[in-house]
Protein backbone atom coordinates (compact mmCIF):
# COMPACT_ATOMS: atom_id res chain seq x y z
CA UNK A 1 0.00 0.00 0.00
CA UNK A 2 1.26 3.45 -0.89
CA UNK A 3 0.62 6.75 0.91
CA UNK A 4 -1.71 7.76 -1.91
CA UNK A 5 -3.67 4.51 -1.68
CA UNK A 6 -4.01 4.96 2.07
CA UNK A 7 -5.23 8.53 1.62
CA UNK A 8 -7.84 7.42 -0.93
CA UNK A 9 -9.01 4.52 1.26
CA UNK A 10 -9.48 6.85 4.23
CA UNK A 11 -11.15 9.67 2.31
CA UNK A 12 -13.67 7.84 0.12
CA UNK A 13 -16.63 8.18 2.47
CA UNK A 14 -17.36 6.50 5.77
CA UNK A 15 -15.73 3.10 6.08
CA UNK A 16 -17.07 0.06 7.88
CA UNK A 17 -15.52 -2.00 10.67
CA UNK A 18 -14.64 -4.75 8.18
CA UNK A 19 -12.96 -2.18 5.91
CA UNK A 20 -11.01 -0.90 8.92
CA UNK A 21 -9.91 -4.45 9.70
CA UNK A 22 -8.76 -4.91 6.09
CA UNK A 23 -6.81 -1.66 6.18
CA UNK A 24 -5.17 -2.65 9.46
CA UNK A 25 -4.13 -6.01 7.99
CA UNK A 26 -2.41 -4.11 5.17
CA UNK A 27 -0.86 -1.54 7.52
CA UNK A 28 0.58 -4.17 9.86
CA UNK A 29 2.84 -5.13 6.93
CA UNK A 30 3.80 -1.47 6.32
CA UNK A 31 5.10 0.03 9.61
CA UNK A 32 6.41 3.11 7.79
CA UNK A 33 2.79 4.07 7.02
CA UNK A 34 1.87 4.42 10.72
CA UNK A 35 3.19 7.99 10.80
CA UNK A 36 1.41 8.79 7.54
CA UNK A 37 -1.78 7.45 9.10
CA UNK A 38 -1.29 9.69 12.14
CA UNK A 39 -0.88 12.70 9.84
CA UNK A 40 -4.21 11.71 8.28
CA UNK A 41 -5.70 11.77 11.81
CA UNK A 42 -4.50 15.35 12.22
CA UNK A 43 -6.01 16.32 8.85
CA UNK A 44 -9.33 14.67 9.57
CA UNK A 45 -9.52 16.31 12.98
CA UNK A 46 -9.95 19.60 11.13
CA UNK A 47 -12.48 18.04 8.72
CA UNK A 48 -14.59 16.44 11.45
CA UNK A 49 -14.28 12.86 10.16
CA UNK A 50 -12.84 9.85 11.92
CA UNK A 51 -11.83 7.08 9.48
CA UNK A 52 -8.12 7.62 10.07
CA UNK A 53 -8.37 7.89 13.85
CA UNK A 54 -10.46 4.74 14.06
CA UNK A 55 -7.98 2.93 11.79
CA UNK A 56 -5.03 4.31 13.78
CA UNK A 57 -6.51 3.03 17.05
CA UNK A 58 -7.02 -0.45 15.60
CA UNK A 59 -3.51 -0.51 14.15
CA UNK A 60 -2.05 0.49 17.52
CA UNK A 61 -4.02 -2.33 19.20
CA UNK A 62 -2.11 -4.73 16.96
CA UNK A 63 1.31 -3.01 16.83
CA UNK A 64 1.70 -0.31 19.46
CA UNK A 65 5.46 -0.21 18.85
CA UNK A 66 4.79 1.33 15.41
CA UNK A 67 4.08 4.55 17.33
CA UNK A 68 7.56 4.82 18.83
CA UNK A 69 9.51 6.16 15.81
CA UNK A 70 7.27 9.27 15.74
CA UNK A 71 6.28 9.38 19.41
CA UNK A 72 7.50 12.97 19.79
CA UNK A 73 5.27 14.05 16.90
CA UNK A 74 2.38 12.14 18.48
CA UNK A 75 2.75 13.71 21.92
CA UNK A 76 3.41 17.22 20.59
CA UNK A 77 0.20 17.11 18.56
CA UNK A 78 -2.07 15.79 21.35
CA UNK A 79 -3.29 19.25 22.47
CA UNK A 80 -4.01 20.23 18.87
CA UNK A 81 -6.63 17.52 18.41
CA UNK A 82 -10.07 19.03 19.01
CA UNK A 83 -12.69 16.73 17.48
CA UNK A 84 -14.16 14.27 19.97
CA UNK A 85 -14.34 11.70 17.17
CA UNK A 86 -10.54 11.87 17.00
CA UNK A 87 -9.84 12.40 20.71
CA UNK A 88 -11.57 9.17 21.74
CA UNK A 89 -9.23 6.81 19.81
CA UNK A 90 -6.20 8.96 20.63
CA UNK A 91 -7.07 8.85 24.35
CA UNK A 92 -7.33 5.07 24.04
CA UNK A 93 -3.87 4.93 22.47
CA UNK A 94 -2.50 7.04 25.35
CA UNK A 95 -4.02 4.52 27.76
CA UNK A 96 -2.37 1.63 25.87
CA UNK A 97 0.99 3.45 25.96
CA UNK A 98 0.69 4.03 29.72
CA UNK A 99 -0.21 0.38 30.29
CA UNK A 100 2.78 -0.76 28.21
CA UNK A 101 5.10 1.59 30.09
CA UNK A 102 3.84 1.23 33.66
CA UNK A 103 1.79 -1.97 33.96
CA UNK A 104 3.63 -4.27 31.56
CA UNK A 105 6.94 -2.44 32.11
CA UNK A 106 7.79 -3.10 28.45
CA UNK A 107 11.49 -2.24 28.10
CA UNK A 108 10.99 -1.00 24.52
CA UNK A 109 8.58 1.66 25.76
CA UNK A 110 10.57 2.54 28.87
CA UNK A 111 13.74 2.99 26.79
CA UNK A 112 12.12 5.06 24.03
CA UNK A 113 9.75 7.37 25.91
CA UNK A 114 11.03 10.42 27.76
CA UNK A 115 9.59 12.02 30.89
CA UNK A 116 8.80 15.11 28.81
CA UNK A 117 6.71 13.00 26.44
CA UNK A 118 4.88 11.42 29.38
CA UNK A 119 4.18 14.91 30.70
CA UNK A 120 2.60 15.85 27.36
CA UNK A 121 0.29 12.84 27.64
CA UNK A 122 -0.42 13.81 31.24
CA UNK A 123 -1.42 17.38 30.30
CA UNK A 124 -3.73 16.22 27.51
CA UNK A 125 -5.32 13.54 29.67
CA UNK A 126 -6.13 16.08 32.37
CA UNK A 127 -7.60 18.38 29.71
CA UNK A 128 -9.76 15.55 28.37
CA UNK A 129 -10.79 14.41 31.84
CA UNK A 130 -11.99 17.83 32.98
CA UNK A 131 -13.17 19.09 29.59
CA UNK A 132 -16.74 19.06 28.32
CA UNK A 133 -16.76 15.89 26.25
CA UNK A 134 -18.20 12.40 26.12
CA UNK A 135 -17.25 9.86 28.72
CA UNK A 136 -15.03 7.47 26.72
CA UNK A 137 -12.02 9.85 26.48
CA UNK A 138 -12.49 10.66 30.16
CA UNK A 139 -12.43 6.97 31.10
CA UNK A 140 -9.27 6.34 29.05
CA UNK A 141 -7.69 9.48 30.52
CA UNK A 142 -8.33 8.55 34.14
CA UNK A 143 -6.58 5.22 33.62
CA UNK A 144 -3.62 6.93 31.92
CA UNK A 145 -3.43 9.46 34.75
CA UNK A 146 -3.49 6.72 37.36
CA UNK A 147 -0.42 5.14 35.73
CA UNK A 148 1.31 8.48 35.16
CA UNK A 149 0.82 9.25 38.86
CA UNK A 150 3.16 6.36 39.63
CA UNK A 151 5.96 8.51 38.17
CA UNK A 152 4.71 12.06 38.85
CA UNK A 153 3.66 12.16 42.51
CA UNK A 154 1.46 15.27 42.28
CA UNK A 155 -0.93 13.55 39.83
CA UNK A 156 -2.70 11.14 42.18
CA UNK A 157 -4.06 13.75 44.62
CA UNK A 158 -5.30 15.88 41.69
CA UNK A 159 -6.84 12.86 39.99
CA UNK A 160 -8.60 11.85 43.21
CA UNK A 161 -10.04 15.35 43.61
CA UNK A 162 -11.35 15.45 40.03
CA UNK A 163 -12.91 11.99 40.30
CA UNK A 164 -14.59 12.77 43.61
CA UNK A 165 -16.00 16.00 42.17
CA UNK A 166 -17.29 14.44 38.94
CA UNK A 167 -18.38 11.00 40.11
CA UNK A 168 -22.03 11.89 40.73
CA UNK A 169 -22.55 13.38 37.27
CA UNK A 170 -20.85 10.56 35.35
CA UNK A 171 -22.39 7.81 33.27
CA UNK A 172 -22.48 4.25 34.57
CA UNK A 173 -19.22 3.44 32.73
CA UNK A 174 -17.55 6.56 34.08
CA UNK A 175 -18.66 5.81 37.64
CA UNK A 176 -17.44 2.21 37.34
CA UNK A 177 -13.96 3.24 36.15
CA UNK A 178 -13.83 6.15 38.62
CA UNK A 179 -14.66 3.80 41.53
CA UNK A 180 -11.99 1.33 40.46
CA UNK A 181 -9.47 4.16 40.10
CA UNK A 182 -10.39 5.67 43.47
CA UNK A 183 -10.06 2.22 45.08
CA UNK A 184 -6.58 1.84 43.55
CA UNK A 185 -5.62 5.29 44.81
CA UNK A 186 -6.87 4.41 48.29
CA UNK A 187 -4.67 1.29 48.29
CA UNK A 188 -1.72 3.58 47.55
CA UNK A 189 -2.67 5.77 50.49
CA UNK A 190 -3.92 8.70 48.43
Describe the structure.
The chain is an all-alpha fold. The chain has helices spanning 3-10, 17-28, 33-47, 51-62, 71-77, 84-103, 107-112, 115-130, 135-148, 155-166, 172-187. It starts with a helix and ends with a helix. The mean pLDDT is 95. The protein has one domain. It is globular and about 50 Å long.
Describe the secondary-structure layout.
Blueprint: H1 3-10, H2 17-28, H3 33-47, H4 51-62, H5 71-77, H6 84-103, H7 107-112, H8 115-130, H9 135-148, H10 155-166, H11 172-187
Summarize the structure.
The protein has 190 residues and is an all-alpha fold. Helices cover 73% and strands 0% of the residues. It has helices at residues 3-10, 17-28, 33-47, 51-62, 71-77, 84-103, 107-112, 115-130, 135-148, 155-166, 172-187.
Q: What is the radius of gyration computed over CA atoms, rounded to a whole number of angstroms?
A: 17 Å
- Share of residues in helices: over 70%
The number of helices is 11
Low-confidence stretches: none
Major β-sheet annotation: none
Distance between the termini: 49 Å
Q: Describe the oligomeric state of these chains in a short phrase.
A: single chain
Q: How would you sum up the global shape?
A: globular
Number of strands: 0
Average pLDDT score: 95
Structural class determined from secondary elements? mainly alpha
- The string of secondary-structure elements, in order, is HHHHHHHHHHH
Provide the domain count: 1
Task: Note the beta-strand portion.
Answer: under 5%
